[in-house]
Backbone:
């Protein structure tokens, strides 16, 4: 039997995997980490996530869980210490809303801004900036999306400005403008300055190399 | 002040709005329903959902909530009677997984199967059937996704076979095959046979007309 074991199938450069690593770190849960070769996925990954065949997969007590935001919900419900979601249903909905917004709406425009060219790129960049600016609403009157402490949405969104800064080095386009997004900018720096957050970030030079390959594919 | 008032901004033909109506009905919560003209959205809708400008929006105690699956979570957390999500974190993750799967993966292929033509249509139909078959896993050993009673995933997914049956009348293509999807098929009929579910379904002839316009747009 697998007892209370926690295993994470991941890939070092995946933002979705980083969310799960951060969440486990905030909860103080140790896990056995298994790095996947995404060009040659393991039988274990295909068995545990037959629908999406993607990382992350969290395996707890032998049961697999997929989809990073749903894994964060699971982690928060399973280990109660250092709650990720706030107590109030309305605030919980807000945290989920901004996290989903980044995946569904923000991220596609950001990727398009970095991978399209010419007029299409300009249009995508404009949309991406508007979407990023929207996130400022989630930070209104707060240091973190979670309030005084980091929570669900911080963990869900925190990789985005880090990755954008790196992609901006690959493609000469500017998306995060500290002047028009002051809250987002100071939130981001406060977030990645937290030791357990910072120490799990993929090394900048390695991610730069990976991002170059990804955007130029 | 708005007290404990519950208002729902909706559109009669929207599957996402239907989810919210069903969830409120299961909880026994009355709401003031406001029908939106989607070709001329109200100031209230634009004010309450500035990010997506979409229905449904649930307004509770003056505070707006968007995104149907997140509204279901809110409803379940706010009104505890007749829980939509099960108790166990693992089963909660499963319910959320199948609901998200329908929105992210199943629905785009189903719409493509009904709106593309020729070879593209055949390919999309094949994918749509595979995705629909996947849902059978969520019904393994159970009458409903929620077990003996309907729950979160039933409410999230229940409109899909209803709409597919109607779209199959508009476009001569068959996606739900009772032979290869027996669990999905019997679940669907058991689900829409529940009185509070059935009575909120949009009238078939009206939805047929609307679907024709949607698919031929």
Residues:
């Amino acid at each position: 039997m697998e007892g209370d074991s926690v295993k994470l199938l991941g890939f070092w450069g995946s933002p979705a995997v980083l969310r799960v690593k951060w969440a486990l770190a905030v909860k103080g849960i140790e896990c056995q980490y298994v790095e996947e070769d995404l060009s040659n996925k393991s039988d274990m990954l295909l068995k545990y996530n037959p629908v999406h065949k993607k990382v992350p997969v969290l395996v707890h007590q032998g049961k697999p869980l997929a989809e990073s935001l749903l894994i964060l919900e699971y982690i928060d419900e399973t280990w109660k210490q250092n709650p990720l979601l706030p107590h109030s249903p309305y605030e919980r909905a807000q945290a989920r809303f901004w996290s989903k917004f980044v995946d569904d709406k923000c991220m596609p425009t950001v990727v398009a801004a970095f991978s399209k060219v010419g007029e299409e790129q300009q249009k995508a960049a404009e949309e991406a900036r508007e979407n990023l600016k929207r996130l400022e609403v989630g930070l209104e009157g707060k240091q973190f999306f979670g309030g005084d402490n980091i929570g669900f949405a911080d963990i869900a969104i925190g990789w985005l400005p880090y990755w954008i800064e790196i992609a901006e080095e690959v493609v000469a386009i500017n998306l995060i403008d500290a002047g028009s997004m002051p809250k987002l900018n100071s939130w981001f720096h406060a977030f990645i300055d937290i030791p357990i957050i910072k120490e799990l970030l993929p090394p900048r030079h390695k991610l730069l190399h990976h991002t170059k390959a990804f955007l130029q594919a």
Summary: Chain A touches chain B through 23 residues (CB under 8 Å). Chain A has ten helices and four strands. Chain A has two domains: 6-78, 89-215.
